[in-house]
User: Fold Zinc-binding dehydrogenase from Spongiivirga citrea.
Amino acid sequence: MKQIQMQDYGSPDVLKLVETEIPTPNAGEVLVKVKAIGVNYSDILRRKNTYFQETPLPFVLGTEAVGEIVRVGEGVTIPYAVGTTVLAILPQASGYSEYVTAIAQYCVPLPPEMNPEKATAIFVQGTTAQLMISQVANDLEGKTVLVNASAGGVGSILVQLAKLNGAKVIGASSSDAKLEISKKLGADFIVNYSKSEWSNEVKKFTEGKGVDIVFEMVGGEVYNQSLKSLSQGGQIIVFGCASGIQGTIHPEFFVDENITQSGFNLAYFINNRMELWQKALETVIGLLMQDKLKVEIAHKYALEDAAEAHEAIENRKTIGKVILTTNN
Assistant:
C-alpha cells in the first residue's frame, strides 16, 4: 500500500511517499480501507516537531481517516462489521495511508448517505467548534462573537454553530474572498484582519461596546487587535497560534478591562472528558445529517501530494477543510 512517511523534521519536503505492507489488525482493532484523510494544522506542528507532544521518527501523520472496514481483529463485534463505513480516530496518527488499523472503539460508524469527504471534518474541526461553544463559551444567546480565520476548517463551523446558538457573528479573515465565504455561512459582519487597527471596525459595528467573545487561533497582531475588540468583561478563547507569533498585549490590559482568557485543547477532552467529546460528536453528526451545518471541502489533494496540502495551509491559501484522497 501507499503511505506518506517522514524520516526527519522540517519543511513539507520531508513528507515522502513509500510502499509498505498492509497492516494486520490486533485484538480489538479493525483494518480500514481509507477513502479520505483529514489534514489539520496539528499535522504541520507534528512535522516541525513543535507540537505539545514530541513526534517520534519515523512518523506517519494523520489523526482522522474515513473508509470501509475490511477486516476485524479478535474480539471485535457489531457495530464494527466488515463493510461498515467509519470515521477512524487515530490518537497516535498513521492516517496518511491507503489502509490503517484503528482501535474499534475509536471508530465512529457513519450513516451510509454521509459523504466520506465531509465526514473528515467532524472529528477535529467539528468537535473543536462544538466543545468550545458548549463547554468554554457556554450560553451564546444574544451575544456578539468574533471568529478569527472564519473561513477555515474550525472557523467556518464556528460561524454556523454560533448562529445556531443565537449569537450575532463577526467573521474575520485575511482576504475578501475568504470573507465572502463567511458571509455566505451566516456572518452578520465581516472584517479583514490584514488591515491595520481593524478592531476599530469591530467597535464601530458594536456601537463602541465591543464583542462579548473572541475565538482566536492566529496570534501576533491579530491576537492584539482581537483583545482590543472585546467589551469590558469579555472573553477570548484561544485554540491555536497559526502564525507562530506571540501577542504583545500587557497583562495589565486584562485587569483594566476585566477580560478573561481561556485555552482550548481537543486532546484534553478526548483523554479526560470522553463523554463530553462523544456528545459533541453526536451533535455535529446530527446537524450535518439535518443539513443545518455545511462543510466546505474546497481543497482536495491526492495522498501523494500531501506536501502540497501542507504548503497551502501554511501559506494561508485554504478555505474550509483540507483533505487527502486515495484511489480506494
Observations:
- The longest helix spans residues 122-137.
- The chain has two domains: 2-121+297-325, 124-267.
- The longest strand covers residues 29-39.
